[in-house]
Write a structure and sequence with these properties.
By secondary structure, this protein is an all-alpha fold. 55% of the residues lie in helices and 0% in strands. The protein is built from 5 helices and no strands.
Length: 199
Amino acid sequence: MYAPGHPPTPQRRVPSRAWIVSMRVLFVVLAVGSIGLLLWAPLLRLAIVRRRTSDWWLTGTGFVLVCVLLPIIGRDDTNPDPNGIDFFFIPLLLVAIVVACAYYLYGDIRHYEQLTKQQFGGGYPPPVPGYGYMTTAPMHQSLPPRPQQYAQPQPPQYRPQPQPHPQPVQPAPTPPQRIDQVRAELDELSDLLRHEEDR
C-alpha cells in the first residue's frame, strides 16, 4: 500500500553473435530444406523475438498458405504428368519460401541492430532516481562539453544541484510504552517456558 513504486525495467540482453547467426542459419535451412513445409517456422521465430502483431499475422498467413498449397500440390491423381495448376502453385510455393526467408533475415537483422544500438550506442544511460527515492528537482547536466581525450567513452559527470533550504532532520521516534510492555511480557513467558522444560 505504501510501497515506493516499481523499479526501472532492465534492458533486454542481446545474445552473442554466434547464437544469432546460428539461429538465422537454422531457420532458413528449415524453411528451404523442408521444401516449404516449415515455411512458417522462421516467421514464427521472428514474431516471438520482435513481438509485433503484424509478424504474428504474417506467421498465420504463412501457415495457412502451406496448409492450402501442399495438399493441392501433393494430390494423388492417376495422371502423374504436371498440369496447369502445378505450373502455378509450385512456383508460388518457391517464391513464398524465398520471400519468407528474406523477410525473416531482414527483420531479424534490423531487430538486433536496434537492440545493439539501444544497449551500446548511447554510452552510459542517464541516471534514474533509485528505487524508493523521491526527487524534488529534476536533474540537469550543467557541464560544458569537453573534447575527447581517449578512444573509450567516458561516463558523464553529474553534479548534484544544491538545495536552497536544507530540510530539518527529525529525530527517530522513540518506541511507544506499549512495545516495552509487550517485550517484558514475552520475556516472562520465555522464562516460564524454560522452567517448564527443566521439570
